[in-house]
Design goal:
The chain is an alpha/beta fold and 277 residues long. The protein has helices spanning 33-38, 41-49, 83-88, 125-139, 197-211, 267-276, and strands at 3-5, 57-63, 69-75, 79-81, 94-96, 99-101, 109-116, 145-152, 160-165, 172-173, 185-189, 256-258. β2 (57-63) and β3 form a beta hairpin. α4 crosses α5. It is globular.
Amino acid sequence: MKTIKLFTLMLAVVIMPSCEKEQVSDQPEVESVQETQDVSSQIRKKVASLNFNSKHVEKNNMLLPDGSFTENYLIEGDIVMTEDQMRTMSSTSITNKQYRTYNLVSTPRTVNVIGYTGGSQSLTNKQRTALQWTIDNYNALNLGITFTLTFGTNYSPYDIVVYQNPNGEAGGVAGFPSNGNPYKYVQIFSGMEAYSTNTNEHVITHEIGHSVGLRHTDWFSRQSCGQSGENADPDGAVHIPGTPTGYDSTSLMLACFGANEDGEFGSNDVTALNYLY
């Protein structure tokens, strides 16, 4: 199966795709020289202490819906965090397998989502349909958090804004909750227009999963990306009861995705979300 990593489309070279830099990954991703130079050893140690893959971290200028940028670090291809956010997360505040962070959305809670429709950051018609399917799927689970959806440009009052990054790549990017609120900014890359509505639904659902506290289910091995031997430190990663402790090929929260996804939750994803919310 062709594998796409949530962040950057990978063709002849390794580039990744949720929350995710996506990557069509026919070969293992390699760490660039610039990435090594730009990220300090202290940041890599902090990332490792939080049970993320410290080989996959780089400085990042994240495009916002209004065209401005915010600086942060991109971790595991599609998860963004600032240095301050890293400091507020201890190694005991990580849980995931299905795995999660202890940073969750307060419940009961209505999460108001807006699909952005302004300028070059506007979602395409395909992405808008995929976003609607995503919200329907989350609400069908009858969780302690429910979602509303509208479309427009006044995103300030909303809890989550889903918008396009016109970078031509495949995948998306998001972050984790803080202070009981979901992560606000969910990017979908413009290269997703080349994929089906179902695959767009998969990426959007994955990124919103990060926004409400889910991590990659194969964070420990990155097996979905063809990188099964990394053996990330499991200390502090707390298993969600009722879900597998090994690789789950059906999970929507795998680090990399295929080109022909159906966009639906795996049964263990449903178990994990019902346990958390």
